[in-house]
Amino acid sequence: MMKKKEKTGFFKKLVNGLSKTRKSIVSNLGSLFMGVTTVDEAFFEELEEILVMADLGIGTTEEIIDRLREKAEASRLLNPDDVQEEIVNVLREKMQVPEDAYAFEAGPSVLFVTGVNGVGKTTSIGKLAALYQRQGKKVLLAACDTFRAAAKDQLAVWSERAGVPMIAHEEGADPSAVLFDALHAAKSRNVDLLIADTAGRLHNRKNLMEELKKMDRVISREYPEAKRENLLVLDATTGQNAISQAREFASVTDVTGIILTKMDGTAKGGIAIAIQEELHIPVKFIGVGERIDDLERFDAEEFVDALFAKDN
């Protein structure tokens, strides 16, 4: 059985944030088992529907069902605890983040952050800056999304909230020129992490790809020793649309990690699992609220524990 974890700090926020997803899965599992006397194909079909509706992903759902079928055949009986335990085991295995996922934290590093309008990209950058600032790292922001109206102003607000400096040019400036100045500032100030707000539009993939390539060349030329990280911000409330966005961005740039936002406002928290399952891109950060400290590193054990935590 799963160990009980004390509801403190970010874990408590995660437990609260996943309440809608938890209710969707756990209550439906309870309804499924009500009155069940035999485990047959109809049982597995209904269980499969519950897991798919929670956005756990087809591959993950099939693996869970296959393991449960094996158990059922061996013992001829399953109970709710057996089912939940097997789901937990599969999810923990699926959601483990690679050991080197946060190697960029050692710095010096350049983090590109992308995402379509409305997913919380600028907010996530501010929270990310604050997270590392609290850890004692030197952080610098670069306002490289120069085409979206007010993008620089929004980033400036978060720069001030996080207590982190920002490099910016005028609206419409060349993003690579902003990055060039930011790179030199980062080197001269011995910055650990330079976080660049990059263009999030997808209506012209060729232009986006060329822009990102150009910026990448600037880093290679001006700061070759810096580590690279390409983080894509996705809104958990959009469910399968988030996977479509991730697939689009991954087709034009090397996405190394996901920042999953708005987990506190959705019953589709399972999308974190589906993203990793279908795209093999690790979720590295998770956001569960509007406060500046409501973004943290993704922890697979903590996520799954929160997903199945007992509500008080």
Q: How would you sum up this structure, described in words?
A:
It is a single chain. This protein has 312 residues and is of the alpha/beta class. Helix content is 51%, strand content 13%. The chain has helices spanning 9-17, 19-33, 41-53, 58-75, 80-95, 121-134, 151-162, 175-188, 205-222, 240-252, 271-279, 300-307; strands at 109-114, 139-143, 166-167, 193-197, 227-235, 257-261, 283-287, 295-297. It is elongated, with a radius of gyration of 21 Å. The relative contact order is 0.18. Mean pLDDT is 84; it is low at 1-7.
Spatial order of the strands forming the largest sheet: 3-2-4-1-5-6-7-8
- Categorize the overall geometry: elongated
Elements, N to C (H/E) = HHHHHEHEHEHEHEHEHEEH
Count of β-strands: 8
Strand content: 5-15%
Radius of gyration: 21 Å
List the uncertain runs: 1-7
| Straight-line distance between termini | 19 Å
Major sheet attributes: 8 strands, mixed
Percent helix among the residues?
A: 40-55%
Question: Total helix count?
Answer: 12
Question: How would you state the average pLDDT, rounded?
Answer: 84
Based on helices, strands and strand pairing, what is the structural class?
Answer: alpha/beta
Characteristic terms for this protein:
312 residues, alpha/beta, 12 helices, 51% helix, disordered N terminus
